[in-house]
Amino acid sequence: MQLDKIFFIHIPKAAGTSFRKTVQDQIGREKVLWLGENNVSMDKFRADTPENLAHTVVGGHIPYGLASQTYKDGYQYFATLREPVSRAISLHNFICSRPGHALYEELSEISIKRAIEVSTRFRSQINNLQCNYLSENRQRTSKAALRSIKKNNIKVNTMEFGHLLMPEASSLLGLPKAPEMEKRNTASKGSYAKPEYLDRELLEMIIDLNKEDLVLYYYIKGIYENALEPSYDNLKNIRLNES
Question: pTM of the prediction?
Answer without folding.
Answer: 0.91
